[in-house]
Backbone:
């Protein structure tokens, strides 16, 4: 305790002259506050008399200050300062201490501002280009979403402002919270985000359907970080989400086989966000984040090799149908194998005869004899309600315009496909189109496919069939093209008359037309040859001899005609003999035997085709000049064999490792879900078998206690046509499940796509460097 006797020596007298009123006012206020603080905190350490003197002086100084008696206040302030100096110097702050406290307060204020209001950031990469480029300095508003308590993830006053889709936010990277990331918010809690390449769609919480984000392609070119060099294979789009418009960029030269194309669905959980960079193909964002964990892999229990061994299908695709949120659970996996199954219902085939030597009418009649229903192109579209609707006016007009080129038409409807044969008016051409019912399920669809073929044909009639027919986008196709061979190797025509000139009537003509290995088949050639002389196998007289029974004799007032097809030797010929040379059918048959005598040599060597009827075999007749023929044969064909990925040929496998409810409880829950469930101990003890959920196929569920796993398998009826096939697959999975190394990956990569709300630091609002972009708002 201090006594008056212990007081220090008095300070030197103050210099002459009075201080300014402002100085006295400020000093008086500070001294009164200091005296009251010292008396309150240290009064017990000061002797009663000096303490009373200090209190009286402070009260007096306060009165003089309030009364604005500045001379008295100055004197009393000197007295109070002296009393504090003498009796309470131990409680007064030193200059160093005051400086430290002031600096501390300043630091605390700065930390408060940085943590709660604004904070500067520097952009480290180009993941947000073109909005932000590497090296940009920005200000982040940390107050707009509420105040985050420093060094925590707790947010106070979150109701003041809500994070919106389209906001550019800075946040702690969920995989490593020591790093700060900046991205754009795309999904809020409850949203499901679907990404398919450069298409982004959102199904907002509570909505039933996805809505694709609106995008407009911009004419501007992509630039590098410096803004001087153009980036190749890159496009800019203006994208809008909830009224917020900004610019994103996509690469256009990505190879989908390399996995660069982003595809998937993400459902955002409560308290989290999904974010993406504006530089969509070069941003490490929610779509790319993964963590390394021990995880199950269902394809380790049943592989493609297992399916090839145990089913009739050979080509399979593997997918994980659940969205990315579900795949984040490392103790669960669900896969779906879908077979690429041959589908005749998706198949297509086109045959074309260009200016056939037997005439378009003869080929058309041979193709349609006794098959299908005669119709017209107009009739195909008239009964189709879809084409007749107001919304399809342009389609209807286009079909009617193209259909004007189609003449005779015959349609045959089958269980698998529609066969349509038609002639083209503008050219002596005949086409036969076979269109699977999955594509041409109505006459209107047939008309559309015919119109597509005719339209392409009219653009360039020299095109091959493979250039005219396209497959449907619902299937994969393998092409089987029968090319147009050289005419001289397939067909020959020799004509004779007595003078070597064109005779006045067919009675003076002898003509042989012969085919070797025609691609359309000798049977069709035979029928077309008969049709060319107005006959058919029903009307003609069959001529049987040592060459076989596929010979046909036709006669009219001018000539006799003999048509022969040798299916084994792949040779066909039509021999016309005018009545001036062949007075009776005996004369014709005698000439036929001469021709047939040369057939064996032609079968062995196609170059000997002209030797079927050389001039020496017709004494008294001279060969006429050959008719002009196209270099390439008149016929070609394209067949498109289809394979489709159909869930009717699929296998699903679900795996739960160490389910939280226990193996027995999980198996019981699955049993309750499987229709017609029953026990099948032939696969495993207590295994459950039942019908597939669709009612077409077989399901199995069983537990493997040795590895603490529960497995469910569902095989469709197409892939497992009998329960025995499904049972063998289940047995294979059960056997492999006893070795955890088959299906447990200790270092698997699993998605961790979402940003916890508490990791968000604030919204990026302004650029402050470089100066060329100073204070620009961040869209």
Residues:
């Amino acid at each position: 305790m201090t006594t008056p006797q212990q007081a220090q020596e008095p300070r030197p007298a103050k210099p002459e002259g009075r201080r300014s009123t402002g100085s006295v006012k400020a000093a008086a206020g500070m001294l009164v506050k200091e005296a009251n603080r010292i008396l309150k905190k240290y009064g017990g350490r000061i002797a009663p008399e000096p303490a009373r003197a200090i209190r009286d002086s402070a009260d007096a100084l306060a009165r003089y200050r309030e009364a604005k008696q500045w001379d008295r206040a100055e004197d009393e302030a000197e007295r109070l300062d002296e009393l504090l100096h003498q009796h309470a110097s131990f409680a007064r702050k030193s200059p160093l201490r005051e400086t430290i406290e002031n600096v501390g307060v300043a630091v605390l204020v700065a930390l408060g501002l940085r943590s709660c209001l604004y904070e500067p950031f520097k952009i480290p990469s180009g993941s947000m280009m073109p909005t932000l480029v590497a090296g940009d300095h920005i200000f982040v508003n940390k107050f707009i979403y509420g105040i985050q308590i420093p060094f925590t993830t707790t947010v106070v006053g979150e109701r003041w402002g809500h994070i919106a889709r389209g906001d550019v936010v800075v946040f702690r990277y969920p995989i490593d919270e020591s790093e700060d990331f900046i991205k754009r918010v795309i999904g809020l809690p409850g949203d499901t985000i679907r990404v398919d390449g450069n298409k982004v769609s959102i199904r907002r919480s509570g909505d039933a359907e996805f809505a694709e984000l609106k995008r407009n392609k911009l004419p501007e070119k992509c630039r590098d970080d410096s803004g001087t060099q153009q980036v190749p294979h890159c496009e800019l789009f203006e994208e809008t989400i909830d009224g917020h418009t900004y610019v994103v960029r996509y690469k256009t030269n990505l190879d989908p086989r390399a996995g660069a194309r982003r595809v998937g669905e993400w459902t955002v959980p409560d308290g989290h966000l999904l974010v993406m960079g504006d530089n969509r193909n070069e941003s490490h964002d929610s779509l790319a984040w993964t963590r390394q964990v021990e995880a199950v892999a269902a394809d380790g229990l049943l592989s493609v090799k297992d399916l090839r061994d145990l089913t009739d299908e050979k080509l399979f695709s593997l997918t994980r149908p659940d969205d990315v949120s579900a795949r984040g659970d490392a103790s669960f996996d669900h896969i779906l194998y879908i077979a690429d199954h041959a589908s005749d219902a998706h198949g297509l085939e086109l045959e074309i005869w260009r200016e056939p030597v037997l005439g378009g009418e003869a080929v058309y009649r041979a193709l349609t004899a006794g098959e299908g229903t005669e119709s017209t192109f107009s009739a195909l579209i008239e009964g189709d309600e879809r084409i007749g609707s107001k919304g399809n006016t342009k389609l209807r007009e286009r079909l009617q315009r193209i259909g004007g080129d189609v003449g005779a038409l015959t349609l045959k409807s089958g269980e698998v496909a529609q066969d349509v044969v038609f002639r083209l008016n503008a050219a002596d051409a005949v086409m036969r189109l076979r269109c699977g019912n999955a594509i041409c399920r109505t006459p209107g669809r047939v008309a559309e496919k015919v119109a597509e073929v005719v339209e392409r044909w009219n653009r360039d009639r020299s095109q091959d069939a493979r250039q005219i027919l396209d497959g449907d986008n619902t299937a994969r196709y393998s092409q089987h093209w029968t090319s147009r061979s050289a005419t001289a190797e397939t067909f020959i025509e020799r004509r004779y008359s007595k003078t070597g000139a064109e005779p006045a009537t067919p009675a003076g003509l002898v003509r042989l037309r012969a085919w070797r290995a025609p691609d359309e088949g000798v049977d069709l050639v035979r029928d077309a040859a008969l049709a060319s002389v107005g006959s058919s196998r029903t009307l003609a007289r069959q001529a049987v001899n040592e060459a076989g029974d596929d010979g046909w004799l036709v006669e009219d007032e001018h000539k006799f005609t003999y048509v022969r097809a040798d299916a084994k030797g792949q040779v066909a010929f039509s021999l016309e003999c005018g009545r001036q040379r062949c007075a009776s059918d005996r004369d014709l048959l005698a000439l036929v035997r001469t021709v047939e005598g040369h057939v064996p040599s032609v079968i062995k060597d196609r170059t000997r085709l002209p030797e079927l009827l050389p001039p020496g075999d017709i004494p008294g007749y001279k060969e006429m000049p050959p008719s002009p023929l196209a270099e390439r044969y008149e016929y070609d064909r394209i067949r498109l064999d289809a394979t489709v990925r159909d869930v009717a040929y699929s296998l699903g496998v679900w795996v739960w490792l160490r389910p939280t409810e226990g193996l027995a409880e999980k198996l019981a829950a699955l049993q309750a879900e499987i229709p017609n469930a029953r026990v099948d101990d032939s696969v495993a003890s207590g295994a459950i078998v039942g019908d597939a959920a669709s009612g077409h196929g077989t399901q199995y569920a069983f537990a493997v206690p040795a590895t603490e796993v529960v497995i469910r398998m569902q095989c469709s009826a197409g892939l497992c046509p009998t329960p025995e096939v499904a049972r063998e697959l289940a047995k294979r999975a059960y056997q492999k499940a006893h070795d955890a190394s088959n299906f447990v990956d200790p270092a698997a990569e699993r998605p961790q796509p979402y940003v916890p709300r508490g990791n968000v630091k604030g919204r990026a609002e302004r650029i402050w460097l470089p100066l060329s972009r100073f204070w620009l708002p961040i869209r």
About this structure: Residues 21-42 form the longest helix (22 residues).
